[in-house]
Design a protein that fits this description.
It holds the Pfam family LysR_substrate. It is built from six helices and twelve strands. It is an alpha/beta fold and about 240 residues long. A hairpin with a 5-residue loop joins β7 (about 135-140) and β8 (about 145-150).
């Protein structure tokens, strides 16, 4: 009997330790354009928070199949709620894109007086390459404008587009959160601030079966960033 009790205590300790110090593999799907910024910025912090966990990031141009592709969770930026009853969405942060450029480019172009002028100026785009790209913009009065342009550079990397914008290669319509540090430092300037993209939301999406996990309802801040990814793996290991 003492041996049985010892094993029971040992099992209880293992479970308690697993709950207190999550471990296992988390497979996270993410749009290619968000892998480096903002999602990439939270990954080292997450791994530091939970040293026994492992992360596998699956970047893709399409939405992942959370069940069929064994994805634990997925980051999405969308205005539309999830319609599949087997999936649950939790808000992380807003996603708003603003027009930015380097001070040198603004000086060379003579400034902008009208949003339509963007069609004839060098631009940067994160969408896949096509002959013409479109930016859908809205102002505070809900006036909408579609700007067709031919970018000098198209790339799915936010880091590469930011580098190009800082270098004065073109005007960009970029995530406000990704530009914040550059705007504060003066490396980039907001252009035509009355115009921006329609606001969408960042979500974490996961199967309803995992809804018991303590996901944050908003924000990407510090510890809550880490908690938002801490969930069980497909093989039942703790997260």
């Amino acid at each position: 009997m003492p041996a049985i009790l010892q094993e029971a205590d040992r099992a209880k300790s293992i479970v308690t330790e697993a709950q207190a110090d999550p471990q296992g593999v988390v497979r996270m799907g993410c749009p290619l354009g968000l892998v480096d910024i903002p999602v990439g910025g939270i990954l080292p912090e997450f791994l530091e928070c939970y040293p026994k966990k492992k992360l596998q990031i699956i970047g893709s141009e399409r939405r992942a199949g959370l069940i069929n592709e064994w994805i634990d969770l997925e980051v999405r930026a969308t205005n539309e709620p999830e319609t599949q009853t087997s999936l649950t969405m939790r808000k992380l942060d807003r996603a708003r894109r603003i027009l930015v450029a380097s001070p040198s480019l603004i000086e060379r172009s003579g400034g902008l007086n009208c949003v339509d002028e963007l069609a004839d100026l060098p631009t940067l785009a994160m969408t896949p390459w096509v002959s013409f790209h479109s930016w859908e913009l809205i102002d505070p009065n809900d006036n909408k404008r579609v700007i067709r342009h031919q970018p000098r550079l198209t790339c799915r990397s936010m880091t590469a587009i930011l580098d190009a914008a800082r270098a004065g290669l073109g005007f960009g319509l970029l995530l406000e959160s990704a530009c914040e540090a550059d705007l504060q430092a003066g490396r980039l300037v907001r252009v035509l601030p009355e115009w921006q993209s329609e606001e969408s939301q960042f979500y974490i999406v996961f199967t309803t079966a995992r809804a018991c996990c303590n996901f944050p309802e908003s924000g990407f801040a510090n510890q809550r960033k880490c908690d938002s990814l801490c969930m069980p793996g497909k093989d039942g290991r703790h997260g």
